[in-house]
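LOG
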Amino acid sequence: MTALDPTAKSIADLDNLLQLLCKGVKTSTPWERALHELLTQADRQVLIVRLSVSMDASSTELIDSARVLFESLRAADLHLSKGRCDESTRAAVKLAKGLAQNILKRLQSTES
C-alpha cells in the first residue's frame, strides 16, 4: 500500500460527491446559479488533480492543483454562508471542502 492510496480514495470520493452536488443544486435563483458554477469549477479541478496524479506530475504541480481545488470549495462554502440553503447541501459542501483539505494535507506531507 502506497502513501497515495488513501489520497486516491479521497479524490474518488470527492469526485463522486461533487458530481452529485452539481446534479442536485437547483439553478432557479442567482445565488443557486453562483453556487452551481463554483461547484462545477471544483468538479473540473478534481479532474485536473486526477490527471496530475495519473501523469506523475511533479509534487509541486500536484499540490498546486489540490490547493486550487480546496480554494474553490472554500469559496463555495463561503458562498453558502451568505445565502439560503438547505442543511443537506450545506453539509455536503462542508464535507467536500474537508475532503479537499485532507487531500491537500496528505500531498503536502508526502512532499516532505
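LOG (cont.) second protein
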Amino acid sequence: MGRWQRPPLGPLAAVQLHITKANPLIEGRGHSPLCRHAQHSAAVVRGDDLLAVADLMARTDSDWCSKCGGYALRRLTDTQLSYYCAAHRLHDVNERLDSQTGVPDSDPSAVIACLDELATWQPVDEAESCSSDSWQWQETVRDLTRMAATSPAVTRPS
C-alpha cells in the first residue's frame, strides 16, 4: 500500500498558540502559559510569545515541555474546528485501512461513503478559505478512496 500523506494544515495554519519560551536561545523548555511547570502564574502574560501553527511546525530548534506540549491554542473559529474534525475523520479512515493496524472487516461502503462526504468539505466561513490547500485535501481523499478499494483491512462481499 502507498504511503498516506496527511491532509494540509488548511485553516489550522493560522491558529495562534501562546508559548512561554518560543525563543530557543532562552534557557529552559517552552510551556503552555497554564502549565504548572511554567515559571509564572497560570495565565497569559505580556512576555509570552504568540506563534501560528504553521510557524511552529516549521521549527526544529525548540525544546518543549513533555507534560503540556509547550503551547496553548487560542480558541478555534467555526471553520477551523470543522476542518480539525474533518481531518481527524480522514486520519481515522486511514487507520482503518492500514494493513498493519487496520480494523478487520471494515465495511467498504461505509468507508467510501465517509470519504465521499469528506470530499465535499467546505469552510463554514468563505473568508477563511484556503483554496491553495483544497487540491491537496482532494488528493488525500482520492488516495484514501483508492486505498479503500484495495485494502486487505476492508472486507469485500462474497
